[in-house]
Design goal:
Rossmann fold, 380 residues, alpha/beta, globular, 3-stranded antiparallel sheet, 9-stranded mixed sheet, 14 helices
Length: 380
């Protein structure tokens, strides 16, 4: 079992870097994957901000790219301070270590509460909002026992199973992942629970800006973080086509262990979990099933692969020429393809392919998909 002590490693951002990182991730067409590529190409967020107009223009942008201002970033930092929160960079010691390893990890997380909760091995517990009494009791048992074994418990602050898991792990440490800004918790009836989490041994995190009200499409992004933070995901009750199954699919994509609690085939709340068992999820009838399976993973080094700025690097790769751009764009279409296949098909240098894709992305002409696939955004 994990020893329960927080292992911390990384390099702290300066306040100047933090403002630049926040400006970059809040600028148009800059998501986590694009942020990483910009840092790799430009060497720092400040260099990337300076190069955004040129890069997006080379990608064929029809209008100037909107770049978040210093004032906007400072206002968001002030909002975080007013709410007792802070922003954690992906290379900093308090960033959740397992989350660093996933594709498209958020460069910055807003966090409020006990930051040590983020650096301990974590177990995700999710399930039905309309939970049964037995399902809620089982989720609480799993959360309580995993907490006592040294794990934090990560969930999404939703009604039902999420609520039971959070409440059962208040004393040992729980992480609530929000779909909106930290100041826009959902559902409203769990605001008091969120306060108990952040004022105790737990933590609330979000990748969304302060003031952002959660929309339906934001919840899969929240589910992505739950899966990324956790070494394993326990699904207690889940209907077919539920958000919990999305979380389980993401956990599988990230190489996490997926545990499913078997239920009655007559209960629609168990159709999804029973389906997961058919697909190879670990049969879970008690806490020991989870704790024993996770024990080897909790000892692994999860701290490699951070985004580290290189202030002396200034994007010294020569820009591709128009012929190279034309070759790559003609090879793309609406069907997602692997970047390695693009390199093989076009015969272009890998550095040129990645840079052209970055230009297209910033111009709003590229779609990124799971698994590192990309496709061309088709014009109307």
């Amino acid at each position: 079992m994990p020893d329960g002590s927080a292992r911390r490693t990384g390099i702290a951002l300066t306040e100047r870097q933090r403002i630049a990182w926040l400006r970059l991730i809040r600028s148009d067409n800059v998501g986590p994957a694009t942020f990483r590529d910009l840092i790799n190409h430009c060497g720092s967020a400040e260099n990337a901000l300076a190069m955004l107009p040129e890069l997006s223009a080379r990608g064929g942008a029809t209008r100037a790219i909107r770049i978040a201002s210093v004032q906007e970033a400072e206002r968001e930092l002030e909002a975080a301070h007013r709410h007792g929160a802070r922003f954690i960079g992906i290379g900093e010691p308090d960033y959740p270590p397992a989350l660093r390893q996933i594709e498209g990890a958020p460069p910055l997380l807003a966090a409020k509460g006990d930051l040590s909760a983020a650096t301990r091995p974590s177990v995700g517990v999710v399930g039905s909002r309309n939970a049964s009494i037995s399902g809620a009791k089982f989720a609480a048992m799993i959360a309580r026992d995993c907490g006592r074994a040294g794990y934090t418990v990560t969930s999404g602050l939703a009604r039902g199973i999420d609520t039971s898991a959070h409440r059962a792990s208040l004393e040992t440490g729980t992480i609530a992942v929000l779909a909106g800004g930290l100041d826009q918790p959902y559902p409203p009836e769990n605001i008091t629970l969120l306060e108990e989490i952040t004022e105790g041994a737990g933590l609330a995190v979000s990748e969304m800006p302060f003031g952002w009200e959660p929309r339906a499409r934001d919840f899969p992004r929240r589910n992505r973080l739950i899966s990324g933070i956790s070494l394993g995901l326990v699904v207690v009750e889940a209907a077919e086509r539920s958000g919990s199954l999305i979380t389980a699919r993401l956990a599988t994509d990230f190489g996490r262990l997926v545990f499913a609690v078997p239920g009655s085939p007559l209960d629609p709340r168990c159709h999804g979990t029973n389906g997961l068992l058919k697909q190879g999820a670990i049969v879970t009838t008690g806490s020991a099933d989870v704790i024993e399976a996770l024990a080897p993973l909790s000892q692994l080094d999860l701290f490699a692969g951070s985004v580290i700025e290189e202030p002396d690097k200034t994007g010294d790769i020569l820009p591709p020429n128009d012929d190279e751009r034309a070759i790559l764009i003609s090879a793309l279409g609406p069907t997602p393809v692997d970047i390695d296949d693009i390199i093989r098909h076009t015969g272009l240098p890998a550095s040129s392919v990645y840079l052209i894709l970055l230009e297209l992305d910033l111009a709003g002409r590229l779609h990124r998909h799971a698994g590192g696939l990309v496709s061309l955004a088709m014009e109307d």
